[in-house]
Fold this protein.
Amino acid sequence: MALSRQDREAERHRIARLVLDLVKQRGTEIPYQTAVAESGLTRARFEQLFEDYDDLFDAIAQIWLRRHIEVMEDVLGADLPPPRKMYEFFRRRFVISRQRFRDDPEYFTIVCEMGAANFEKVRSYVDLADHYLCELIVQAQADGYFAGLTIDEALSLINQMVQPYTMPEALIYVGDKLTEDKLARIVDTMFIGLTGETGGGARGVNTLRVAS
């Protein structure tokens, strides 16, 4: 019997949640065949829900990253000045990841390893975060920030400046050295000095020139 769209999505969520729980219990990524065996479904029914491992992994990623997407969208809709908005855009996701790491470092590390091994399958979520960040950059530029920089230039520079706060793996290696106070200082510095108006030989900096 064919499932309704609502029932199908509910069942996909249940199985993806089950697989995440198995990852936590067993300390390893769960292969497609194991997911089929543990699901309680026939293989035919399982394949109606997930045609292959990529499809299953996408459903798992949706669960893991859902809160990150929600907070990004909340920040985009918030009535905040650009510096505070930019800070919250990164801070809220960082806090989610930090709490998960503190709650269960081993599980967090395994999920990070899964993400790294299947990066092409989560690229769309990275692209979504960049899309939202571009919207914040446009809003900031309308208020006079990041003058002289294209959106792509500002996007690249900002991503590199805050990378330890957006890459969950950094928590594994840096841990408590990553703090909200430091992130706030980085974002403040960004809004004070990130510009392209100092000339072609020193774009984005005040006094240093890159030797050619």
Q: What stands out?
A: The chain is about 75% helix and 0% strand. The longest helix spans residues 53-76. The mean pLDDT is 90.
